[in-house]
Amino acid sequence: MTITIRQLHPHFFGEVSGVDLRKPLTPQEARDIEAGMDKYAVLLFRNQDITDEQQMAFALNFGDRENPRGGNVTKQEDYRLTSGLNDVSNLGKDGKPLPRDHRAHLFNLGNCLWHSDSSFRPIPAKFSLLSARLVNPKGGNTEFADMRAAYDALDDDTKAEIEDLICEHSLMYSRGSLGFVDYTEEEKQMFKPVLQRLVRTHPAHGRKSLYLSSHAGAILGMTVPEARLLLRDLTEHATQPEFVYVHKWTLHDLVMWDNRQTMHRVRRYDQSQPRDMRRATVAGTEPTVAQQAAE
To answer: How far apart are CA 111 and CA 141, in angstroms?
Structure first.
C-alpha cells in the first residue's frame, strides 16, 4: 500500500492511511512519514492495535529513544511499564486509577497545561508518539497548536523583539503554577532550569516557530514578572482557535507530533475512570542554545 496523508486543519495535522504499524517500515515508508511530519507537524494513525515493542520499533525509525530520567516524580520501583515507553496514564502499578491526592497524579496534572515535551531538558525531544490503549468515555481530548503558523501571524515588531530571546525551562515552573511546590533535594537538582531559544528554526524546511511551554518561567535579561507577561501573551496568541486542532481519541489511535513545531495539552477528564496512554519519545539531536552543547 502507498502512504497517503489527508490534512485535517487549515495549517497542520494530517491523517495517515496505508501503513500497518505492527509491521516494520520500509525505508521509503519511514522517509514518507518523516516528510509528513516536517509538513504537517502532527500525524494521526487510526486503528493501530500495537504492542509496546511495536510502538518503540516504529519510533526508532526516526531517531534514538529519549532517556526518560528526570521527567517525573515516580520512583522506578513504582513504574507500571517496563517496556521503555513513557506512562502517560492515570494508573498505578496495580492497574487502577491513582488516588486523587497521590503525588504522581498531582504532578501529572501538569500535562493539562500547554507544553512541548521535554523542553525542560538541555536537548529537548524531537518526536512524541502516543498510543491510546484505553480511552476515557468522556473528556481527555488532546489539543495541538501549530507554533509555525502562530509565529507567522506575529507582527514584525514582535518578531524582532523576541528573535534572540533565551528562556529558562523547568518542570518546577509548570508544576509550580498549579501549586505543586514540594520537591526533594534530588528532584530540585534533577529539575534545574535549562536554557531554550524562544524562536526556533526547523532543520528540514527552515520555517521559524515559537518555542513556548508551561515549563518556561523566565527570560534572560528580563525581570520575572515582565518575562512571564510576555510568555503569557505569546501563549494566548499561539493557542487561539485558528492555530489549534482538537483530537478526540478513539481506541488504538496513535498520534505522533513534532515537539519542535507544536505545543499540546490534554483536557481534564474523570480521573476515577482508567485512561491508558503510552508514549514513545524520540530524542532530539542538538540543544537550541549553543552553550549547553557540552552538558
So the answer is: 12
Number of domains in the chain: 1
Q: Is 115 helix (H, G, I), strand (E, B) or coil?
A: strand
- 145 within some domain: yes
- Domain range for residue 74? 4-284
Burial readout 229-256 (b: 16 or more C-beta within 10 A, e: otherwise): ebbeebbebbbeeebbbebebeebbbbb
pTM of the model: 0.95
Residue type, 27: P
Can you tell me the distance from the alpha carbon of 232 to that of 283, in angstroms, rounded to the nearest whole number? 27
Most distant CA pair in the chain, distance: 55
C-alpha cell at 118: 521535554
Residue 291, domain member (yes or no):
no
Which residues, 6+ apart, have CB-to-CB distance to 213 below 8 Å? 114, 115, 116, 119, 120, 169, 174, 263
CATH of the domain at 81: 3.60.130.10
Q: Is 131 a member of any domain?
A: yes
Predicted confidence pLDDT, tens digits, the chain (295 residues) = 799 999 999 999 999 999 999 999 999 999 999 999 999 999 999 999 999 999 999 999 999 999 887 677 777 777 788 888 999 999 999 999 999 999 889 989 999 999 999 999 999 999 999 999 999 888 999 999 999 999 999 999 999 999 999 999 999 999 999 999 988 998 899 899 999 999 999 999 999 999 999 999 999 999 999 999 999 999 999 999 999 999 999 999 999 999 999 999 999 999 999 999 999 999 999 999 975 544 4
